[in-house]
Protein 1
Amino acid sequence: MGERTLSIIKPDGVSKDLIGAVISRLEEEGLKILAMKMIRMTKDEAKGFYKVHEGKPFYESVTDFMSSGPCVIMILEAEDGIRRYRKLMGATNYKEAEKGTIRRDFATDIEKNVVHGSDSRENAEYEINYFFNALEVAGR
Ligand code: CMP
């Protein structure tokens, strides 16, 4: 079994009709989608998701944004999946992201940066369990 990570297509990605474009890039990179759903988080749900960032200057703003519209959330799996998905996304700040990455191509703001990905195995486990129960993970 490869390494699992959580992916979110954020409200800006959904409203700009980038769901298909993002998923194509994931599949081309060999990141397998094990589970997927569209949700709309409440402010409190967004705060729980971004708990690791509690107290940071952008915490209020990013949780407002993440609860402002629907998101597509997915569990991805691949060998070295966390690092490979982060490379595909590009740097958090799209201005620093490498050419050809999702954020460089589509992001418009450090906050409205189209996608989220877990940054460690520990956070991936927390994030996956935050959104999905065992019955929702199809496996393949
Ligand atoms: P994400 O990878 O989802 O993790 C935290 C999010 O907070 C980040 O992407 C950005 O959307 C948002 N954010 C806003 N400002 C900052 C900042 N200065 N540093 C890091 N993340 C930020």
Note: DSSP finds seven helices and four strands in the chain.
Protein 2
Amino acid sequence: MRISIAVIFILVIIALITCSVIARHSHKAIGKSVAFLNAAAIPPVIGNLLITLSDDIYISTIGYYFYFIGMNIIMYALINFTINYCKGSIERHKPPFFLFILLFIDTVQLLLNNFFGHAFSLEKTVVDGYAYYKLVPHIGQVFHRIVDYGTVLCVFMIFTIIIIKISRIYREKYSIILISLIVVTIWQTYYIFSRTPVDRSMVGIATFTILVFYFSLYYRPLRLLDRMMTDVISDMPEALYVFDPNDRIIWANNKGYELFDIHDGNLENVPKLMVERFGDVVRNHGNWSAQRTTGFGNDTKFYELENRDLIDRNGKYAGAYFRIDDITEEKLRIKKEMYEATHDRLTGLYTREYLYKQIAETLQNNRDQRYAIIYIDVRNFKIVNDIFGTEFGDYAIKYIADRIRFHSSEKTVYGRLVGDTFGMLAAHDFFDPDLIESELANFRIKKDDIDHPLLVHLGVYEVTDHDMDVSVMFDRAHISLSSIKEEFGTHIAFYDETMKSQILWNQNLSSELDNAINERQIIPYLQPIADPSGNIIGAEALARWNHPKEGFLPPSSFISLFEDNGMIVKLDRYMWRCACEILSRWVEEGKDRFISVNISTKDFYFMDVVSEFKKLVKEFKLDPSRLRIEITETVMVNNTDLMIRILESFKKEGFIVEMDDFGSGYSSLSMLKDIPVDVLKIDMKFLQTSNDREKDLTIMENIINLSEGLGLISLTEGVETEEQYNTLVNMGCKLFQGYYFAKPMPIEDFDSKY
Ligand code: C2E
Ligand code: CA
Ligand code: CA
């Protein structure tokens, strides 16, 4: 028996060495502490081997020392392993220091037994005819046991607490170790207290460390994985059904029960219910997925169905799982997102990007159809918002959108471009300009007590090339709008090629203005103004542009452009300064003359014209009456009261104000009595050849008389012949300007002539 136990011990030692070495080289984090634990078990086993084999008291004593001190090392290794194994569940990283001290003290007191004999003594018995030294414990041994059992108890506690606290699926990992430890401890205790001659409990301890080796490094708790998977799958938002190879349903997850309202746990009817709801493709074999729609209107639901066959290792059909996913929410979300991305929120019309895309597609798919691109613009819409508020503004936009819908056929694609502009692609035959003109002629927005007329213009570009960029087509349709501007009579403008070059030309000129002023490409020409005796008493300054590329440009080619984009302010300010320069030179030369300068209507919007002029005459030390100011009658139309005040302050400052082009526009004679002007410049149209010369002359005479009556000085423009001049003198006209005296000329010419 002794021999067989010894053989077992030797085998255990070999096993422990092997486990220790393997664990040491394991790449798992727990490897080192497992190796330590297994290595720590070797000395006590050796100790027991010595005790078992020897019949010599000294060797037995050495054996017991190996055994007891080795047990202390095992305790330390056990705590060390426990801490590492439970990492994450407990805070510690190292065994507590006091435990180390405790084990150390125990080791020392055990060693002192050699001198004091307080811990144990050996008692000789005979087993199988051999002497065997059995342990007789004393008080020191009791201390040793308390320390070791105490340590084991701590380990029990740690594992127990973790097992209670941790999620169900991880319990196995800890339970296995705890159970092994309990079994071994009981086994050990049994031997200690049964006092059987040969202590075989060491085998238990070694077995425990080997179990630890296996469980912590190699054992994959399959049940743990299973349980994890089942938990995950059960709670999945998709319904899952598992079928056996005979296509009987054997399992469903929670959602699977819910989907068909199954409460009694009986899955038998599920296949039938599936077919009822989703049709007969359900449960076809193979790997496939499909989408199904059920219900109507707001109850519509979208599902995704998927079947996967399960094939076992031998390639045999092992059943299938079937997945049903309710994708209604996602479908609706995508649909909504699509709608929001492609439709304007206010009007529900296509957004610009989407409109362009749709138009491009329509053009591609209907290559033989003739189309027109229509750019719809509400003029001065900003004013509508400002005056009536955005709520009414939004209402107006929606109303226009409705009218566009109303006028469209199925061959029309339309949308909102941005703000108050809309875009449309209309098949040529469905676009009826006359009809639209008649609707727009008296287009009004009515809401509550607001009834406001809206000026809506359409720019039309006839599509010639179906592949052209849609944005370019709209640019062209837009360009055509500039040809009808603020017009009320015409609402539709058609694009032609000259418009494009006109726009480009305009853009070029605008970008060059600053430079042209700096380089004095733009210069004032002077046209003399005569009195009834033919003496030149002043001049009008008229702008000319000596363009390096375009040549000599008359004002007609740039004034209205700069009036449109507001750049006229720069040009006029410059012209006024030029006039002042000339005047101040004339004053120096002792010439007593005036210069009339033009003020555009726009100038009044963008600057304080009066203070501008005051600054100028101050800077050039001029008598304000030398700088005459020409305003046109249109300036009076919109802001009569404000203009009267402005003109009055001009007069107060000593400037002479002239009403230019009188009679060319909407001027009313009655207006004259209120407007504080000094000179009436009668438009040259009255002198130009017309059907009824007599009538023109009569009007002319009356205007002259009237102005005299109102205390105004009359000036006639466009005097081209001596005859005209004489007639006008006879009518009582006071000032004259026209080719008869001279055309506008450069300053040098003017200076040398007059
Ligand atoms: P306006 O102020 O009515 O200037 C008179 C226009 O009549 C000048 O044309 C002049 O050359 C022309 N004219 C003068 N006598 C005769 C004549 O006997 N027969 C004919 N057929 N025409 C005559 P211009 O220089 O081409 O200027 C055209 C318009 O451009 C001006 O009309 C004025 O409204 C505007 N303009 C010219 N320079 C400026 C400027 O510096 N600032 C602003 N705001 N407008 C300017
Ligand atoms: Ca003028
Ligand atoms: Ca004029």
Note: The two ends are 150 Å apart (CA to CA).
